[in-house]
Amino acid sequence: MQCRRAGKTGPGFRDISFELQQSEILGIGGLLDSGKSALGKAIAGVQPPLAGSVALNGLPPCRPNIARFVRHGLGYVPAERLVEGIIPGLGLALNLTLPSADHFARHGIWQRGLERRSAEAAIKRMAIRSGTPAVPLSRLSGGNQQKVVLARWLQRDLKVLVLDSPTRGVDAGAKEEIYRHIRALTEQGIGVVLITDELAELIGLANRIFVMQRGRIVTEIPAPPSGKPTEHDLIPHMLPGPV
């Protein structure tokens, strides 16, 4: 995936240009007003940029469009799970199938059996506790709800996954399980954009890190397994003023 800049590219960020490799976890960190979440929404096409383009999975460079990008292998996990990620009153199975209606509808008829089997497989794969396909998502813990949001993309032929704060509001045990699934995705060749406020998460998962400040990428820091930066290496670049 290539993200190309064009002046003021979107609300909250500008002059962004980078390339995401297969099997890479690209971490993006910064303060709350750094523009990192706005960048994630723009890449995924949730809030398309004012200018610029993204080239995804062989598509020619284009203005991001979430419906088109989903069809070509992009997934997006938003930061605000309860507002943007789930429909709490609906059952687990329906929440899992939200981005995959094309797969579960045949000749205008919803395939309930296929939906149920897919949900049962996701529950097992993601170790979703207290989950049956029909249970309303509102009855699940925050960690299990977040596993559902992640699991819905694993049913597709995924190439790129944009994660914004993927472990916000979940307990330590669920965090470790989510980390394991993220690493497993890269072993399948999937590229991951990881946006997070948590420095330990950023450092531990990412292969390289962009630090954003005032809507711009101010530095790129390598983060290979053999040479991880420390929090002290990142924090000065996040703070306003000269670094």
Please supply descriptive tags for the structure shown above:
243 residues; alpha/beta; Rossmann fold; 3-stranded antiparallel β-sheet; 37% helix; globular
Structure description:
The protein has 243 residues and is α/β, with parallel strands linked by helices. It has a domain at 2-87 and 157-238: Rossmann fold (3-Layer(aba) Sandwich), CATH 3.40.50. The chain contains ten helices and eleven strands. It has a six-stranded mixed sheet, sandwiched between helices. Helix 8 (172-187) links the parallel strand 8 (160-164) and strand 9. The model has no long low-confidence stretch (mean pLDDT 89).
CATH architecture assignment name of one domain = 3-Layer(aba) Sandwich
Which strand-content bin applies to the residues? Answer: 15-25%
Proportion in helices = 25-40%
- Class from helix and strand fractions: alpha/beta
Write down the overall mean pLDDT: 89
Q: Supply the CATH superfamily name of one domain.
A: P-loop containing nucleotide triphosphate hydrolases
CATH topology of one domain, what is it called?
Answer: Rossmann fold
Indicate the radius of gyration in whole angstroms: 18 Å
Number of strands: 11
Low-confidence parts, pLDDT < 50 over ≥5 residues?
none
First-residue to last-residue Cα separation? 29 Å
Shape type: globular
Order of helices and strands: EEEHEHEHHHEEHHEHEHEEH
Summarize the structure.
It contains ten helices and eleven strands.
Explain the layout of strands and helices.
Elements: E1 2-4, E2 18-19, E3 25-30, H1 36-44, E4 53-55, H2 66-71, E5 74-77, H3 81-85, H4 92-97, H5 101-104, E6 105-106, E7 109-110, H6 112-126, H7 142-154, E8 160-164, H8 172-187, E9 191-195, H9 199-205, E10 208-213, E11 216-222, H10 231-238
Parallel strand pairs: 3-9, 3-10, 5-8, 8-9
Antiparallel strand pairs: 1-2, 1-4, 6-7, 10-11
